[in-house]
From TrEMBL, chains A, B:
Membrane topology label: Multi-pass membrane protein
Molecular function terms from GO: potassium:proton antiporter activity; sodium:proton antiporter activity
Protein species of origin: Melopsittacus undulatus
GO cellular component assignments: plasma membrane; recycling endosome membrane
Protein name per its UniProtKB record: Sodium/hydrogen exchanger
Residue ranges occupied by any Cation/H+ exchanger transmembrane domain in the UniProt entry: 39-490
Recorded family membership: Belongs to the monovalent cation:proton antiporter 1 (CPA1) transporter (TC 2.A.36) family.
A GO biological-process term: sodium ion import across plasma membrane
Gene3D superfamilies: 6.10.140.1330
Superkingdom in the source lineage: Eukaryota
Compartments where located: Cell membrane; Recycling endosome membrane
Residue ranges the record marks as coiled coil: none
Amino acid sequence: SHKGNEMEKLKKYVSVKDEDQFYHQGAVELLVFNFLLILTILTIWLFKKHRFRFLHETGGAMLYGLVMGLIIQYAAKASDAESGTVYECEKLKSGQSTLFINITNQVYEYQYKREISHHNVNGHQGNAMLQKMTFDPSIFFNILLPPIIFHAGYSLKKRHFFRNLGSILTYAFLGTAISCIIIALIMYGFVKAMVHTGQLKEWDFHFTDCLFFGSLMSATDPVTVLAIFHELHVDIDLYTLLFGESVLNDAVAIVLTYSISIYSPKENPNTFDAAAFFQSVGNFLGIFAGSFAMGSSYAIVTALISFTLCEFPMLETGLFFLLSWSAFLSAEAAGLTGIVAVLFCGVTQAHYTYNNLSPDSKMRTKQLFEFMNFLAENVIFCYMGLALFTFQNHIFNPLFIFGAFVAVFVARACNIYPLTFLLNLGRKQKIARNFQHMMMFSGLRGAIAFALAIRDTESQPKQMMFTTALLIVLFTVWVFGGGTTPMLTWLQIRLVLASNPDKNTTKAESAWLFRIWYSFDHKYLKPILTHAGPPLTTTLPEWCNPVARLLTSPSAYGDQLKDDDTDYIINNDELTENYESSAHMPVWDRTA
Amino acid sequence: SHKGNEMEKLKKYVSVKDEDQFYHQGAVELLVFNFLLILTILTIWLFKKHRFRFLHETGGAMLYGLVMGLIIQYAAKASDAESGTVYECEKLKSGQSTLFINITNQVYEYQYKREISHHNVNGHQGNAMLQKMTFDPSIFFNILLPPIIFHAGYSLKKRHFFRNLGSILTYAFLGTAISCIIIALIMYGFVKAMVHTGQLKEWDFHFTDCLFFGSLMSATDPVTVLAIFHELHVDIDLYTLLFGESVLNDAVAIVLTYSISIYSPKENPNTFDAAAFFQSVGNFLGIFAGSFAMGSSYAIVTALISFTLCEFPMLETGLFFLLSWSAFLSAEAAGLTGIVAVLFCGVTQAHYTYNNLSPDSKMRTKQLFEFMNFLAENVIFCYMGLALFTFQNHIFNPLFIFGAFVAVFVARACNIYPLTFLLNLGRKQKIARNFQHMMMFSGLRGAIAFALAIRDTESQPKQMMFTTALLIVLFTVWVFGGGTTPMLTWLQIRLVLASNPDKNTTKAESAWLFRIWYSFDHKYLKPILTHAGPPLTTTLPEWCNPVARLLTSPSAYGDQLKDDDTDYIINNDELTENYESSAHMPVWDRTA
């Protein structure tokens, strides 16, 4: 018993050491990322100081990631491949999330990670260091993207956004659909050609795969372009059109990709199955609407709670953060799309909750999400650079890659020019030719396309798509991102001076959509959800007075239209200008 | 081939669905935590508004966690235990981080999670929901604790901290050692008694286990008490003594626990092995010193970089965050203690880097870490409440628990009273009797004790320790935390008014230690690392002038001692008061 005792003891120490190694496991890899990010920040600081605008921070991050990937690839070549042996355990049941395995009388717990196609098994057995540098794809969707998307929604310039709402919705929904289909059709042509030349077995690549590729490549991400626009104070309407389009288009592309991935015709996957098609369309609409509802309802709850909470900025910020995150999690838990939910949550939070926050919390929440966005964005772009060399299962197919470049370019053109032509028929302030070219030029692909592509890299077609998507992202971010400033000069797009906020620009759209929404929002939603706006007692019919009095914030009576975020919302005099004839004007005169 | 094709297709869809389930897996559990935190925030807001001080937010978080744990425990009782089957796979090698398992022709990747003792296997097979609500213990050490500890270091009131440095170091090092040994001795007595009464087999519980328990129970965490001190503006010296002690004592306890856990006598573990003992002492000193060096050197690098970076607050904040995190990761990667590194990194950042930051970044960094601290703290306390019911392997041993309560109490007394007596011999401003009682009373146990205890819960003694530690945390946080305000009244401890910062209190300690450090820091470190302080050209000997000119910030010449954080550092007139006779005074007169 004494000997056994000692053995036990010894084994315990060994196991403690093992465990410690597991604890420290992630430290080195995270350190590599930290190091890359620090380098990026220092470089960007240098560039910003000297006003070099040909490399944005995301481009820099990608460049450093690329170099680091190259180093790891070649430095760690002769590493152990020990960890890749495949064990035959036919008696196990598949699909278990946790395995308890008894190895020489010691039970170990293993956690499910993923399923691996047979032809990839060898790839996975490669370099241990490369393997460790590979994130779990779900990290992109659950950790890195949500803050980026929320921040996008939260910093939407609503004043101009709502003025251009119709155009933005057209580009985002119709444009993305057009882009998806055009890319799919062109890629299908190239795939057929590849089958002809024997580069591809036919059954590998269906039209649905092409649609999948089309939908993921339709997510534009002009973060580089927008950063330069912001810095140079480029025309605000162009900025809004591009920003609004890219934000909403992400949501559309994500849901579209998901809907296509679960499109499953009962018969031959190459034939068109109407029932399955309509089910996919239904899925798309259901998921989109559900996510929208989930996101905005959490934001409305936040607005209602923050009504009363403005004394303690820390509690307020905490609540704001937790409720926004809950929108994401609830959507995920309900089988909807968390990222879409978090986007609309951000938009709604900015529109209502922001008005109720204390000045301190306003700044805190803005800075917090700005910071999270900054970090997450740079991590993703670093990782993209890294992935070009560290990802183990790249399939570089020149014809496919060439086809994809052509497809992306053509699809962007078929999206922007025809839709702008149609929109200009209805718009009061037309979208000028040079603006159209700039929008065409700003069709960069970025984080979303990458995240959608890396989500599934098990089959060979998916690997080919991933490689191609990665190359398109690298190319567009560097070339188009870097070329933004020369392009602006070349297209002679006017720069608005920072000191001159364009107060007296004419309304952009024939604003019936905007007008209906604005009136409803201003009369009913704003008074209920914020301290701003006219008291409900004046906007609701008289018989609603008891309810109205209950719902109106006491401060709404005293102050006159106290809208805190003039930066965001149409300001007072502009409102008067636009709605001189509208019914509720006299009300303000009365309260004044 | 066509049939196989379809099968393939079908399988793909099934696998996509499976994968999606894995994606959503964490959402529900995170949602439960979010919900608990939101509840906590709302409750605390209510309490703060009505100035109830008997329940701090951490106590509230714990309470809600407890209730939620109870609900989960009883609601999810009849859940599936399917996932807990143990598979015999003798041919596998142990210690692999990744398993590739071929189950009916499909390869799955599984990731190592942990080792499980045989007698726990049944426990782990229990309720799936409870299992999911259980964090990986490494999350505490790698994600939740670092921001808390960094924030503690970053918000140390240095002015008073350095004045009481000797006392704080005495409490932290000597006091923690005393506390550890006393607890170990008392527990050893109780363990012997338990063996006598047949409650325990002797070989289960060595003296080293008692020491392990003693060290982890020596980490005090008076977060509740300090929050109330802060709110009521209790005497700043008492605040500093308690805060400084608790911060440093965490570092000491963590390293001590680690050193004890790797203490391995070659012979019988019950006998004293001098060589192994001195190795443990060496380990302790080495790890502590190494972590200290790692943390402070990263902070110094940050200070040097931030010297030049103050135009872009976002880049500055990002760099600050990444370098501080790198301190943690580097220490972990080097086999040191990340948490200790991050603590000293925080202290050094506050002392040097903070002075170089732009006003915007000063606020951003403070608010960022304040926010992270707030969230992490509440998550840990929520989890503690939850763990009382959801943790599967509790061992409630009344005698052991009773013994632990006695031991913790006695050890705190043996720490505070004798050490204070000794310190008062040397201090100019004595630590009063009522202060001593308050310090005795403030010996709460919290996050660190819990995190140390949960790190290893595989053997039965460790499980008994975990259960006991948890109960002590719950008890002390609620009872002592809640009793702080009455205790302050009862002990008649004076409250300092917020508007009266105690400028003219006399020096607390006979300040030789402080004087040496201050002089060195002020003359050499501050001028090199910040914009503040006298120019190096005046403090260094004349022959060093070329080097000095190089190292001095240009702004140091023009301005006179521009120390931005008067809140943190001894201010100018106090300095004059204390060091009228010191050598460098005339220098200022010259520069003035």
